[in-house]
Amino acid sequence: QMPPLAACYNLMDFEAVARRVMKKTAWAYYSSGADDEITMRENHAAFHKIWFRPRVLVDVEHIDMSTTMLGDKCSIPFYVTATALGKLGHPEGEVVLTKAAKQHDVIQMIPTLASCSFDEIVDAKQGDQVQWLQLYVNKDRAITEKIVAHAEKRGCKGLFITVDAPQLGRREKDMRSKFSDVGSDVQSGESNVDRSQGAARAISSFIDPALSWKDIPWFRSITRMPIVLKGVQCVEDVLRAVEAGCDGVVLSNHGGRQLETARSGIEVLVEVMPALRERGWEKRIEVYVDGGVRRSTDIIKALCLGAKGVGIGRPFLYAMSAYGLDGVDRAMQLLKDEMEMNMRLIGATTIEELNPSLLDTRGLMGG
Ligand code: FNR
Q1: b/e 158-170 (16+ beta carbons within 10 angstroms → b)
Q2: Where in the cell is it found (predicted)?
Q3: pTM for the model
Q4: Which residue is closest in CA terms to ligand 1's atom 5?
Q5: Is 164 a residue of the active site?
Q6: Which of 18, 76, 281, 326 has CA atoms 20 to 30 A from the CA of 90?
Q7: Tens digit of pLDDT for each residue in 178-201?
Q8: Could you report the predicted ipTM of this complex, rounded to two decimals?
């Protein structure tokens, strides 16, 4: 028996429903993290080490949560991050997320390994809706070049190159479920996939483990889209990304699905921003965070610390799997309502006003 959608009051509620109603294999693929899932749990737990230092007696009648990401406007500083295999959860797949993103004026990142074709997802967008492309780099660079050129031609506004997955991590829940109908769901171009290792490994054999910093100038030369490295995990690599001319980084551990005991993005953010500010580089690169964002307070904390925006993955998959478009719509609305309230409660009326003095981060600094 499905609880009514109105009984979902936060993003965790969708997860609880999805766990009960999803196909076991689909649940295993979406919910799994690498190894013992320590990083996956820490992603959300890390936000709890940060406390607010709100300001009172600020006129907070009018709240404006809108911002820009890579130069494009959006209504609230989160985006729908790329998650593969949308049709495992819902027969219409990623286009459900496209429609919800349009309703809420948020940006959607299209995964290389979407269940829908890339063109279907772009065709589903309306008006000046903004989409980005998440890229897994193929060993055959001619294929990658074609994908990138096509995405740019179809209006994608950002190229997010995933750099934390030269080999897919061990998601044991997923491996145990030995997913059997992945091949027909995916446009990976591989017909003879090895399904014995779960969905993730079955679809990822084309990814080039030789990808390196030397390839970044080549990407620069083949596209005018802003280039963002998704999956950067320490300040050294952020500085290197600036030097390489990248437009952004996503501090991410792939939702805890790759390197086990990698740090959470928010933890990395506190080492990254001071180093950028010290060099006067904070305007040269946009810094994003994903992983474990479940509450508007998580979003606000990341922004106070200097992130331009945050990505959210599993919660929208769960909302989509359980309730389709209405579910994703409600999940986004809940975040908006929470965010408006919490900005009031900390005494900030615009995104520009969010700053580190609104936080106590001693708990993150090893305190
Ligand atoms: C992902 N993620 C991901 N990232 C990527 O670059 N390419 C991909 O194909 C996928 N696929 C994918 C599938 C599923 C089921 C999940 C849960 C995640 C990682 C994703 O973009 C993001 O980093 C995390 O999902 C963020 O963590 P939360 O919000 O899921 O906690």
Answers
A1: bbbbbbbbeebbb
A2: Mitochondrion intermembrane space
A3: 0.95
A4: 82
A5: yes
A6: 76
A7: 655 454 444 444 444 555 666 666
A8: 0.99
